[in-house]
Structure formats: structure tokens, C-alpha cells
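Holo model, adenosine monophosphate. Inputs:
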Amino acid sequence: MKALDELTFDNRFARLGDAFSTHVLPEPIAAPRLVVASPAAMALLDLDPAVAETPVFAELFGGHKLWAEAEPRAMVYSGHQFGSYNPQLGDGRGLLLGEVYNEAGEHWDLHLKGAGQTPYSRMGDGRAVLRSSIREFLASEALHALNIPTTRALCVIGSDTPVWREKQERAAMVLRLSPSHVRFGHFEYFYYTKRPEQQKALGEHVLAMHFPECLEQPEPYLAMFREIVERNAELIAKWQAYGFCHGVMNTDNMSILGITFDFGPFAFLDDFDANFICNHSDDQGRYSFSNQVPIGQWNLSALAQALTPFISVDALRETFGLYLPLYQAHYLDLMRRRLGLTTAEDDDQKLLERLLQLMQNSGVDYTLFFRRLGDESAELAVARLRDDFVDIKGFDAWGEQYVARVGREGPLDQEQRRVRMHAVNPLYILRNYLAQKAIDAAESGDYSQVRRLHAVLSNPFEEQAGMESYAERPPEWGKHLEISCSS
Ligand code: AMP
Ligand code: MG
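Output:
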């Protein structure tokens, strides 16, 4: 276990030079204090969890202090936002403080979000508010606990610094960890500004640091693109399987590593709704829940365009064609598991689609349905769950097919079924209203609810004593919260 001053830095991205990022110092926030820290994320840096409570921790991640070996940099990138190309983006309020390597030999980017203005801030103040910082923290750690690839969050530091959004709020900083902060938009930036040499330097950096196995392939760039396609197919299958709606799938918010990245007005579904739009400024529903699948493909095509200097168009097209079938295979596999099925039958897709349609029509809670389905034998669970459906006849017909389908899996010990299903069907999920209640308390200075919610979500598949209220259906008001898009 390390103390804070024992971290070892190796700032590989900074060494790429000024064409890729600009040196900027963090601007401190006033009276920095720990809101919440993740012991699991701290372990990635070999940090002793006790150091989170020391004043120097809040000073470091509140922008007051810096390690001598850190090299804070704002990265430049561009990207497609809601389908249109924006030529100039970049870290407008976040800084890559440096790369720390741990005892396992892994490198982790330390990215401080809300660290003040940079050359890429445009009209922004460079700050992040407490509520959005808490939301990013909770989502990162909750997704990780659900086995969904994501950036991680080390901590949130609150402050007295006022910031103006729709009303006056307080600034906060969140310390994000990721093996890389390179986005699709990095490749787009050098492609559209016609800087092939820098694009090549970026490509070689990403290959060497993050896709070393691709360097052994005859066409390393093509192998890397294929890997990115595969990872995105799997990632989005997981989002769809667990009801995660990202909300702002612009290409500047897509990680080159195929992990969940840059959290805005995200939401997990309460009631199942394929058309759910979590981003209230998304009038066309471009990033609605079910559109995440084709948008994943659209984003990969934007990346493919930027990679045309390295890879032939035919090879890109062929590789890119793998996305949908791979997505479908992963998704069906995950949903079979959520249904408690261990074998595959041709009609499983239809069985699943009928269920989702019934859930959609009746507004059934997406998370709790699957959890309860595993509580008991298929017959008993279906008999109990039917009351949640308006179209009871429709559900009964589905239930009969489901029970028969489970029956064809062969004899099954009920306890085994429960354990297996509960291991993939969480009891606790980061519902918007739970986050909001914890944020309301934090905004009035009580951080205990954020900490408790984080603890519950760190172990979402295990029933936790005394935490029953976190596993309840949301109240009606809680399902229709308008989450502010300003952050
Ligand atoms: P986002 O929608 O948070 O992914 O941000 C899109 C772009 O706007 C990124 O380049 C951000 O760095 C920048 N940005 C967002 N909020 C601010 C802010 N308050 N100050 C400066 N830049 C910002
Ligand atoms: Mg972003």
C-alpha cells in the first residue's frame, strides 16, 4: 500500500508534445473537502484507502497541490456532436494530470475534471458542479460493479467555489481513472486538420500503449480497428442488457478502448422503455435507448473515415460490418443468462422480444423483473410476476412458453437457478431518483447518502442487510425527473 507521495508517474501522452496537448495548471477550488472516494479505485493505484480522509488528499484532487512528477495537460480533439462535425473541442475543463503506474505494471491516467479553464474552454468556465461530479462518480463505480467496461472514479472533491448554471451552484472536481483518454475524436481531429504525421504519431502511440498485440498482426491498424469494433459491440450489448442509457454518444465521448466514457445526463431504465430519451436536449431522440445500437455503428463509421489514411476502405467496410452481428450475439447471450437459460434455441430471440414488448406496454420495472424471475422456480416466479402486467393474458401466454423453455433445459436444482440468475441480475441499480436524493443531501453538506449509495452499488448482485429501500420500485415522481443537461 502506498502513501499519496509514493505514486510513480510515467507521462507517456505528455511526451507526444504540444501538438497533442497543452500544459495547463489546475485552478484550485475553495475549501476543498472529500465528498466520496472509492476504495476499489484507490486500490488500482495501490493507495491505502485511509489516505482519502487526509487533508492533503482533498488538496491534491481539489487542484491546490501537485506532485512534482505530474505534467498536467489539456488534450486537443474534435468530434461529431449530434451528427455534425465540430472541428475544435478538447479538454475544456479537465486535465490529464499524468499517468501513474501501479505495482501490477498497469498505467492509469489521472484526469481531473472541473480543473478550470484551458485553451479549449471556448465560452465555458472550466468548472463542473457538485451534482454532475457525483453522478459521474456513482455511474463509473456502479457500471464497473455490473461488469460493464468503464472509466473509473477515484473521488469527488467538493468546495465553496460558486459556479453559475441555471442557478448558483458549487464547483467540484472528480478524479477519473482510465488506461487512456484517447477518444474517437482524437483521430478525427488530426484527420480533418490534415496532419498525417501527427495522426501517425497518435496511431503509433495508441497501438504501442493500448493494443500491443495488434502490432504483431500483418496490418496493425486494421487489427486495432477490428478490436475497437469488437469491444464496442460488446460494450453496447451490455448497456442494452442492463438498461444503461448514455445520453450523449458524440464521437468525442467515445473511448478508443471501447469503455463507457464521459457521463452526462445518463440514466438506467426504471420501467422498460425502448424509446426512452434521458437527454432532454436530444429533441430528435438520436441517443434514445434503442438507438444506441445503430449509433454505435454510426460512431464506428466516423472513426473508420478518420482511419482511411491507414487502412483500405474495403478492409474498413468489411471489419465495420462485424459490428451488428457481434452486437446481436453478445446481447442475446447476456439476455439468455438474465432469463436463466444456459442453452441456445432458435426462438430465444423471439421469446425475449415478446417479453420486452409486454414490459414496454405495461411499464414494468426492468431491473426488478429479472431479479424476481430468479427468486423462485420458473412456474412460481411467472405466477407472481403476472400482476405487474396490464395485459395479463399476454403475459400468461409468454409465461407458458418461458416455463416450457426452461423445462427443456433439463432438470434443475432451484437453488442453483437462483444463485446463477442472481449473479447476473442486480438487485440494486443506480436509479436517477436515488442519485438525486443523495445529491440533494450532499448539496446541503451531508455526504453520508452519497457514500451509502456508492457502497450499495459496489455490490449490486448481493442482497445487503438494511438496504431494502434501495431495492424498491421508484416512486412515481422518481420516474420522471428531468436531469439538467448543464454540468
Ligand atoms: P461534454 O458535453 O461534457 O462531453 O463536453 C463537450 C465539450 O465541451 C468538451 O470539449 C468539454 O471539455 C467542453 N465543456 C463542457 N463543459 C465545459 C465547461 N464548463 N467549461 C469549459 N468547457 C466545457
Ligand atoms: Mg465530453
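The two ends are 34 Å apart (CA to CA). The longest helix spans residues 220-242.
Archived with the compound record.
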